[in-house]
Design goal:
5-stranded parallel sheet, 7 strands, alpha/beta, Rossmann fold, about 55% helix, two-stranded antiparallel ribbon, about 210 residues, single chain
């Protein structure tokens, strides 16, 4: 993935920018939930969910998805090194990509690629867990939720910045491509994509239904 600076510098020469949400759009399931279950194993996953009940109750009151996500990250990934997490994400993508990616979404992705578009995944899932999928798809950029790491490069259980959902998706797109970004198309599947879809010339909400 290119850096934000490199993307801004090349913005004048790139083709149309097309943004795809990941979970539920390019995939038929929530990849981060699937990753946590795969990483933890059945018993550890069940115990972890039990310990997350207070966080789930708090979410019912404050509807803060970022706080709930951070609690899950702390429960299942807290203390893991960045390198180990990246390795596990690579292994998960290799094992599960064929079961997760929608064929009709991939066809749309490839059609835009053939038209010279710059393809961007914009997701609320952590960038580090989606990065292997993005590389395999040949994404030009990945914009997602960032996890916080301590000075020993271990997961702290907090987010580094805002949860990449809703208005934050547009904020992050503008950070990468500039305030005058011309979003040719965007695809999503939930109210977390509403602002990004409204920002695009062509928008597709829940247009992909294929299953692997």
């Amino acid at each position: 993935m290119e850096t934000l600076t490199q993307l801004r510098q090349s913005n004048a020469t790139i083709g149309p920018v097309v943004a795809f949400d990941f979970d539920g759009t390019l995939t038929c399931a929530d990849s981060f939930a699937a990753f946590l279950a795969w990483q933890a194993g059945p018993l550890r996953h069940a115990l972890g969910h039990a310990r997350l009940i207070p966080a789930a109750i708090r979410y019912c009151a404050d509807h803060d998805r970022g706080r709930l996500k951070a609690a899950a990250v702390g429960e299942f990934l807290g203390g893991m090194s960045r390198g180990d997490l990246a390795d596990r994400a690579n292994a998960f993508a290799s094992a599960r990509a064929a079961d997760l990616l929608r064929p009709d979404a991939l066809q749309c992705w490839n059609d835009w690629r053939a038209r010279g578009a710059r393809l961007v995944i914009v997701t609320a899932s952590p960038e580090i867990t989606i990065a292997p999928f993005a590389r395999a798809l040949g994404a030009d950029n990945l914009i997602g939720t960032r996890l916080a790491f301590d000075d020993q490069d271990r997961v702290t259980g907090a987010l580094d910045g805002a949860n990449c959902r809703g208005r934050e998706k547009v904020v992050r797109l503008k950070q990468v491509f500039g305030d005058d970004v011309d979003l040719a198309a965007a695809y999503g599947d939930s109210d977390g994509d509403t602002e990004m879809l409204a920002f695009a010339k062509v928008s597709g909400l829940r247009v992909f239904t294929g299953r692997p």
